[in-house]
Design a protein that fits this description.
The chain contains twelve helices and 17 strands. By secondary structure, the chain is an alpha+beta fold. The chain has three domains: 144 residues, Outer membrane lipoprotein wza fold like (Roll), CATH 3.10.560; 72 residues, no CATH class; 93 residues, wza like domain (wza like fold). The strands form four sheets. It has a six-stranded mixed sheet, sandwiched between helices. A five-stranded mixed sheet has the order 9-8-12-10-11. Strands 2, 3, 4 and 7 form a four-stranded antiparallel sheet that branches. It is elongated, with a radius of gyration of 38 Å.
Length: 399
C-alpha cells in the first residue's frame, strides 16, 4: 500500500508538471528567455540580452544624434556670413547712369550726329539705362556690353557695380552703376516636407535662423499635432543632423543661423511604443513629449502585475545603432547599421529605478514584462479547484 501511494504521488506530480506546461501564457518566462537566446533555432535574428546599467546609460547618452549646434564646428562656414554676395544662378538688374554722349542711351547716335554738325552744342543732362536682366553663369561670370565678362562670384552688389564702372570709365563719360539682385539663388535655403509652403527661402543680411525659415515656409502643415512629433532634418555640406522641432524651440543654442545651401526637411513622425506581457494592459501608446523614459513608459501601461509578473525580467526590444552595440562589446556585422538587442531591467533592485528614469525610449520600442515561473503553477491549481469545487460542495451538502 505504501509503494502504491508513492506511485500515485509520482504520477500526480508528473500530471501536475505536464498540466502546467500545457497551460496558456502571455509570453515566455525569464528562464525560457535566457534559454532561447542561446538556441540558434529560436534566436534566428541573433539578438543579445544586455542588462541595464550605469555604463549602458552613459553609452546611450553619448550616442545621441548629432545636435544642430555641432554642425557649425564640424562643417566650417563656406559662404559669406552676411548673405549679400552674388553667386551662380543669380539674376541681376544693372542700371547705368551716364553724362553727355551715353553708350547705353537710345538717343546717343542722334546726339553724336548733332554734335558733328555743330547744331547740338548744349550739354546734355545725365541719362539712365537699365540693361535686360543679367544671369550669373555656372562659372560665376556676367557679360556686360562694352565691359566684357566680369567675374562676380563672392562679390557684393556694390563690388559688382564698382567692377562694371572700372570697365566703362575709358568708354563712357563719368559712368555710375547700380546693381541689385532680382533672383537670389546663391543666398537661399530649401525648406520642404510637412510645411504649408515648401519653397526656396532667400536669406537676408539679417541672418535668419532655422525657426525663422520654417516660419517663412508657413510653419507645420498640421497645427493640431504636437511640435515634438515633428522632426527637423538639416543637411549642410554633406553633414546631416535631425532633431525634434520642440527641442529646437526649447533650446535656443540649437536654433542656429542658416547658411546658403542648407536643406531643411520637416517630417511628421508620431512616436509610439508597445507593451506586452504581465502588465496592467497590453497597449500601443503614442508619446508627444521630447523625452520619455522607460520608467514613465512602464507606468503608463500600469506597471507589472503583482499576481503574474516577474519584476526581475522586464525587457525592452530595440533595433539599436550598431556603433552602440560595438561599444558595449556585442559582435555585430561590420556592414550593419542596426542590430537587434534586448535590454533587461531588474525591478527588484531598487537602484535600477533610478536607471529607468534615465533610460530614454525611442520610437517603436517594445516592452515585455515576463510572467513569473510560479504563475503556471497557480494557474493549474486554479483550474483544478474550478473542476473539483462543485464535487466538494455537492458532497458537503449530501452530508
Amino acid at each position: 500500500m505504501q509503494r502504491r501511494g508513492h506511485l500515485i504521488a509520482m504520477g500526480g506530480a508528473l500530471l501536475l508538471l505536464g498540466g502546467c506546461s500545457s497551460l496558456p501564457a502571455s509570453g515566455p518566462t525569464e528562464y525560457q528567455f535566457n534559454r532561447a537566446q542561446h538556441d540558434p533555432r529560436q534566436n534566428t535574428v541573433g539578438y543579445g540580452i544586455v542588462q541595464v546599467s550605469p555604463e549602458l546609460i552613459s553609452v546611450l547618452d553619448n550616442e545621441a544624434p548629432p545636435r544642430f549646434s555641432s554642425l557649425d564646428a564640424d562643417a566650417p562656414i563656406v559662404h559669406q556670413a552676411h548673405n549679400d554676395t552674388v553667386g551662380p544662378g543669380d539674376v541681376l538688374q544693372v542700371s547705368i547712369y551716364e553724362i553727355g554722349s551715353a553708350l547705353f542711351s537710345p538717343s546717343s547716335a542722334a546726339m553724336a550726329a548733332a554734335s558733328a554738325s555743330g547744331t547740338g552744342t548744349t550739354p546734355s543732362p545725365s541719362t539712365a539705362s537699365s540693361l535686360p536682366p543679367v544671369s550669373v553663369d555656372g562659372n560665376g561670370t556676367i557679360e556686360i556690353p562694352f565691359a566684357g565678362q566680369i567675374q562676380v562670384t563672392g562679390l557684393t552688389t556694390s563690388q559688382v557695380a564698382e567692377a562694371i564702372t572700372d570697365r566703362l570709365r575709358q568708354k563712357s563719360q563719368a559712368p555710375q552703376v547700380v546693381v541689385r539682385i532680382l533672383s537670389d539663388i546663391a543666398n537661399s535655403v530649401m525648406v520642404y516636407g510637412n510645411v504649408r509652403q515648401p519653397s526656396r527661402i532667400t536669406l537676408t543680411p539679417n541672418r535668419e535662423r532655422i525657426l525663422d525659415v520654417i516660419a517663412l515656409a508657413g510653419g507645420e502643415n498640421h497645427a493640431e499635432q504636437a511640435d515634438a512629433d515633428y522632426v527637423v532634418r538639416l543637411t549642410r555640406n554633406a553633414h546631416i543632423a535631425e532633431m525634434p522641432l520642440q527641442v529646437i524651440e526649447n533650446d535656443p543654442v540649437q536654433n542656429i543661423v542658416m547658411q546658403p545651401g542648407d536643406r531643411i526637411q520637416v517630417t511628421l513622425q508620431p512616436r509610439s511604443y508597445t507593451v506586452f506581457g504581465a502588465s496592467g494592459q497590453v497597449t500601443q501608446t503614442q508619446f508627444h513629449t521630447p523625452v520619455l523614459t522607460m520608467a514613465q513608459a512602464i507606468s503608463r501601461a500600469g506597471g507589472p502585475l503583482d499576481a503574474r509578473a516577474d519584476p526581475n525580467a522586464v525587457y525592452l526590444f530595440r533595433f539599436e545603432n550598431a556603433s552602440v552595440l560595438r561599444r558595449i562589446g556585442m559582435v555585430v556585422d561590420q556592414n550593419a547599421k542596426t542590430a537587434p538587442v534586448v535590454y533587461q531591467l531588474d525591478m527588484m533592485n531598487p537602484s535600477n529605478y533610478f536607471l529607468a528614469q534615465k533610460f530614454r525610449m525611442q520610437d517603436r520600442d517594445l516592452i515585455y514584462i515576463a510572467n513569473s515561473s510560479s504563475n503556471k503553477f497557480y494557474k493549474f491549481f486554479g483550474l483544478i479547484s474550478t473542476i473539483i469545487a462543485p464535487g466538494i460542495t455537492a458532497a458537503w451538502m449530501a452530508r
